[in-house]
Automatic annotation (TrEMBL):
Organism expressing this protein natively: Larimichthys crocea
Gene Ontology terms: biological process: protein transport
Single GO term (MF): calcium ion binding
Chain ranges of the EF-hand domain: 26-61, 109-144, 150-185
PANTHER family registered for this protein in UniProt: EG:114D9.1 PROTEIN-RELATED (PTHR46002)
The UniProt record lists the keyword Iron: no
GO CC annotation terms, alphabetical: cytoplasm; nucleus; plasma membrane
Recorded family membership: Belongs to the calcineurin regulatory subunit family. CHP subfamily.
Protein name: Calcineurin B-like proteinous protein 2
Zinc as UniProt keyword: no
Chief localization: membrane
Cell compartments where the protein resides: Cell membrane; Cytoplasm; Nucleus
Length: 194
């Protein structure tokens, strides 16, 4: 069992996942193989430590945060469907066509990506990035290259530029506005498949 799994039939809710995430069937199949590879003890569930085998995450300075974003608060396991739904945030957008608003947003829309990115900073999930939360991420990403003073001043400048209502924290709306000119698709494209 489980050794020859290269068929969509073996994947629970495969069709629904294709519809929901915009991944192709072939892509879902590859992700399933990837999932099974990570699922070392073959339980159909991943735990945070299973992600240690994803080299790109192991080498990412905020890899731990990205991994914990896969898991709902208080949850320590992840099934295949949830795995795919989170990975859809990292799927590059198909095109720039405008949406008519009648369809649900695909998981890889810029807004959903921004929300996912915001969550990587907002660790206490109070809807705001505090100065301390910003510093934690900057320290993780730049810690080796800059001094603590430089870190403080980078954080200070980032808050000053984004904090329109001057409450000394960055709300999601402020985050979105300050990143409007950044190509979030490019920044959020993480390759999970080798
Ligand atoms: Ca917060
Ligand atoms: Ca603010």
């Amino acid at each position: 069992m489980g050794s020859n799994s290269s068929s969509m039939n073996n994947i629970p809710n495969a069709e629904q996942l294709v519809q929901e995430t915009g991944f192709s069937a072939a892509h879902i199949l590859r992700l399933y193989e990837r999932f099974q590879f990570l699922d070392k003890d073959d339980t159909g569930q991943l735990r945070p430590e299973d992600f240690g085998a994803v080299r790109e995450l192991a080498m990412n300075p905020i890899g731990d945060r990205i991994i914990s974003a896969f898991f709902s608060p208080g949850q320590e396991t992840l099934d295949f469907a949830s795995f795919v739904r989170v990975l859809a945030h990292f799927r590059p957008a198909d095109s720039n066509r405008t949406r008519d608003g009648a369809q649900p947003e695909p998981a890889n829309s810029s807004m959903r990506k921004l929300k996912f990115a915001f969550q990587l900073y907002d660790q206490d999930r109070d809807g705001k990035i505090s100065r301390a939360e910003l510093l934690q991420v900057l320290r993780a990403m730049l810690g080796m290259q800059v001094t603590e003073e430089q870190l403080q001043s980078i954080a200070e400048r980032a808050i000053q530029e984004a904090d329109f209502d001057q409450d000394d924290a960055i709300s999601f709306d402020e985050f979105r506005k300050s990143l409007e000119k950044v190509n979030i698709d490019h920044k959020m494209s993480i390759r999970f498949l080798s």
